[in-house]
Write a structure and sequence with these properties.
This protein is mainly alpha-helical and 168 residues long. It is built from 7 helices and 2 strands. A hairpin with a 2-residue loop joins strand 1 and strand 2. The model has no long low-confidence stretch (mean pLDDT 87).
Length: 168
């Protein structure tokens, strides 16, 4: 029987446990991430290792990168979609944190202007529908505006009076 929408398949648990362990997470952290008992993690890892050895499954660089991204998100580093004068971009919050105040402000303003100009923005306050979300891009940009705003506030607090970026 396939898992319900809220359940994670055994195969994904095995693969995820194996890769996350390889990325330095403890078994307790893996268990907390997947919301499973900590005692189950070693068995999941060894099951995936035996499948690798037998050739039932393969592991690639894509898999490692995917699970590294999952680890980043679990640690609070989110991937954002935002707008600049050159178009749409994707970046991790940690990468945006390295930008200076004027660059962050340009991203903030471009993304905020896009969301503000959308006549459907009033619908962003409602949860997205199941399946296809026609406002997915708007939701991503709205989230980016919030996160970039937080980063600008951090830069504001860190900067001395003469170096402060504009406050929102």
């Amino acid at each position: 029987m396939p898992p319900s929408d809220s359940e994670i398949s055994e195969e994904v648990l095995e693969e995820g446990s194996y890769h996350l362990k390889g990325l330095g997470l403890t078994e307790a952290q893996i268990a907390a991430h997947f919301e499973i008992p900590a005692e189950a993690v070693p068995a999941l890892i060894s099951s995936y290792e035996s499948k690798l050895k037998s050739g039932k499954v393969g592991s690639s660089e894509f898999d490692r990168v995917f699970w590294a991204d999952v680890k980043k998100e679990a640690e609070g580093d989110v991937k954002l979609t935002f707008l600049s004068d050159k178009g749409f971009h994707h970046a991790w919050k940690s990468e945006l944190r390295k930008l200076d105040g004027p660059a962050l402000m340009a991203i903030y303003e471009a993304s905020k202007d896009f969301v503000g100009a959308d006549p459907n923005q009033k619908f962003l306050d409602y949860p997205p529908p199941k399946g296809y979300d026609p406002l997915a891009m708007d939701r991503e940009l709205r989230r980016a505006v919030e996160v970039v705003g937080e980063l600008l506030a951090e830069k504001w607090e860190e900067a001395s009076d003469e170096q402060r970026p504009p406050k929102l």
